[in-house]
Amino acid sequence: MATSYDYAPLFRSSVGFDRVFNLLENAQRARTVSDWPPYDIVKTGDDTYRITIAVAGFSQDDLNLTFQSNLLTIAGNKGEPQGEGYLHRGIAGRPFEHRFELADHVRVSGADLTNGLLSIDLVREIPEAMKPRKIDIQTNATLAETQNAPKIGSRTAA
Predict the structure, then answer these.
(1) Which parts of the chain fold into alpha helices (H)?
(2) What is the mean pLDDT of residues 136-156?
(3) pLDDT of 97-108, one tens digit each?
(4) What's phi and psi for 11, nearest 5 deg?
(5) What is the Cα Rg of the chain in Å?
(6) What confidence tens digit (pLDDT) does each residue in 44-68 have?
(7) Contact, 65 vs 74, CB < 8 A?
(8) Class at the top of the CATH hierarchy for domain 37-81+88-134
(9) What is the pTM of this model?
(10) CB under 8 Å to 21, separation ≥6 — which residues?
(11) Cross-referenced PROSITE patterns, in alphabetical order (predicted)?
């Protein structure tokens, strides 16, 4: 049984959260997509993550990774082998596509294919302008000193 949520009341009472509501709506629609091949998402540090996908049987040329405007897409398409007569085929080689919506300031730092596991490293880099900064608190005494300080070029009688 699928549950559908109506976000209209939240749209009416909030400003600037459009992207969050769109993510929630897209996540509900995306559940119909197959979860094959299986994958893990691991937080490896304070600002680093790794997505690992089991892509046994796929070569580096069969995989395609793209990152555009906070959307990471991993697609695999293995061509059909020519002239092989399988008696049993248990290793899946069907095409797949996984899409991951990444947060702002998260970028792909690298990808590696080892032993049938595709590992994609992600890092969150917050720009300096958005990082917290310390604000100095001034007292009335320091404010008075700065106002009474002698000014260069002031016109006073000597």
Answers:
(1) 8-13, 18-30, 140-148
(2) 67
(3) 999 989 889 999
(4) -60, -35
(5) 27
(6) 999 999 999 999 989 999 999 999 9
(7) yes
(8) mainly beta
(9) 0.67
(10) 7, 10, 11
(11) SHSP
